[in-house]
Amino acid sequence: MSQVVTRFAPSPTGYLHIGGGRTALFNWLYARGRGGKFLLRIEDTDRERSTPEATAAILRGLTWLGLDWDGEVVSQFDRKDRHAEVAHEMLTRGTAYKCFSTKEEIEAFRAAHDGYAVFQSPWRDADPSTYPDAPYVIRMKAPREGATVIEDQVQGIVTFQNDQLDDMIVLRSDGTPTYMLAVVVDDHDMGVTHVIRGDDHLANAARQTMVYQAMDWAVPVWAHIPLIHGPDGKKLSKRHGALGVEEYQAMGYPAAGMRNYLTRLGWAHGDAEIFTSDEAKGMFDLSGIGRAPARLDFKKLEHVCGQHIAMAQDAALLQEIEAYLEAKGEPALTQTQHALMLKGMYCLKERAKTLPELLEKARFALVSRPVQRDEASAAALDTVSRGILKSLTLQLQNATWEKAELESILTAAATEAGIGFGKLAQPLRAALAGRTATPSVYDMMLVIGRDETIARLSEAAD
Predict the structure, then answer these.
(1) Is 300 a known ligand-binding residue?
(2) pTM (predicted TM-score)
(3) Catalytic annotation on 238?
(4) What is residue 112's DSSP assignment?
(5) Whose CB has fewer CB within 10 Å in the chain, the N or C terminal residue?
């Protein structure tokens, strides 16, 4: 069996859509799981709408998702001469013809057939000696009888009646190729064996199959995947929230969690819910893709991302946090903050579903004195609480700074004050983090160490 080659071919007219991200992911997983190649082509033939900024955004989105591609990025526009060469080769083969029909003549034909008929060019079988000295397009000579059958790995057998498909233009009168021709030529030249894309391209597969057949080229395996819908079952749009992959990075979803969630969005493998990318590569196949549109579910996304944050290696997670801060344009971590975050990662990862949630939990490791307190934590520092903190600073001076001894000292202080430990914990949280919701008091004290703990308690007591 030949090597599997897949491709992702976005148009650079905007950001990388979440649906495009999933399509790229499916192509990447299918190729990588079979030792194949995953190629990237930018379909930039629409010169008015294509921008370098959009191309850069697409590459950033793919890089954040962790989808590496093989070889150089291919520009479709740069290959326009090759596309034109194939159109002329089709002329030579007799599978295409020059059409001199004007726009007015085509409109008149349609008007005479109630506007619904497939245009039938009078030049299809014309003698070249009758050709006028006038502009022409090159049209493919499509079969007019029978059917074109697409054996789709997701949609099943899909049949298109040939009398419903016109002789499509492959080369315009200005010598530029049409999208339908360019896609086929590029896929053939790049050795693409499997075309995995959105099911909005299913009708294109019939026309593109005809181009393959006109050139005697092998037709790739087709797999047209359903689009992603919003939670309400309607086509995904701005009203559902974030649409661009980079928006999800900016919201602080970890890339590994995003990959896992998008893999499961419209694809299933037994009971597998939470898995690594290596596991996904081993499991992913086309037969697991469903035919119905998948629905975006933010609660499920958060659950999956929370699992991946908990599973992550501490250093790798910290690296992702730093990339997130950079993407948001926020200050980088200082050396001290970096060291404390790494030291405290064991108590920060639990139950955090996004990176901003984790950073909020890590506030105690990120702040410096004087600690800024929110309203609720400031209210916890009343006269009685400050007195207890003052007394505690003296008792903690000579503690061994192990959890068991810290527990003993704090429990004794609460008993002596005649309060439960929960009542003591609130002013301690206020003193150490300036918040009422934090990791455990003991974890914070162990991470920031004796000197900083005592300094913060003294500050709050005063």
Answers:
(1) no
(2) 0.92
(3) yes
(4) H
(5) N
